[in-house]
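Please review this pair:
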Amino acid sequence: MAHQPDSPEVDISAEFPFDLHNVDILGSQMAYIDTQPDSTTHNGPVALFIHGNPTSSYLWRNVIPHVSPVMRCVAPDLIGMGSSSNPRNLQYRFTDHYTFLSTFIETVIPSSPVLLVIYDWGSALGLHWAHQQAELSNTGSPPRVLGIALMEFIRPFRDYDDFLDREEVRAVFQAFRNPETGRKLIIEQNTFVEKTLPRGVVRGLTEAEMDVYRRPFLRPEDRLPTYVWPNQIPIDHRPSDVFDIATRYHDWLMRTGVPKLFFWATPGTLVSVKKAQWYARNLKNAKTVHLGKGSHFITEDHPKNIGMNIRDWVVDTLLAKAC
């Protein structure tokens, strides 16, 4: 575990080299990347990439090209985010997002074995789905889940100190969750997109990249998802339903033998160095990859490293096992 932090990668492209597809989910449109949309067979293995707040499938633009030669890749824009619809009658709570995402999975990849590539809120959604699959199987091993590649993931946090160990970042999220300041910061000032996002990228983001991330949230009335997400983080048993869900999927994650690929960075945000070292020792059947210097949006700092490690792990571990 003794690693020297490496600098972020250079020449990271802002280009989005994919066509977006659309599918009707519960009366709204969800946009998604699909690297094999015209395949004659759609029951083969799929790498499902799930983003978090306030991003979209654009987050994976420089990761997927390394994985797509060995596996079909699908990456949705969560409802209300990216190029997906932003229905005004939705509260955008965790359970709302999960309903849309689980329906998306059953619509677009209904029978495919799935490699979950998950991050931030995408980790909570993906792990909840995997745990639900395990519960349905009555064996503890979800038959559709080939493996789990995870990074900067959400777990049940005991308190704010457990949530974030950097005081200045912790104070920002406490302000986001304060009813008197949160809406002003996020809805009126778009702080989550304009400040929290670029501060979480060590190399910074170019204007071209920021323009893509801004696009879904140009108007205050479109920013509700970015406001609700930080208020759904399971801290000190609140919100109680999300805390309970996170507790159950985290307990399952720690005991399941499903193959795992765990990425971490220094200093990290949701996953500190100390916590990363704990997970490296305690996750079952896991390969651990230290990326070097990184904060929260580590796919924007180390996309090639992440993509190549996923590709090699798929070939050496997941597909080899399947054969």
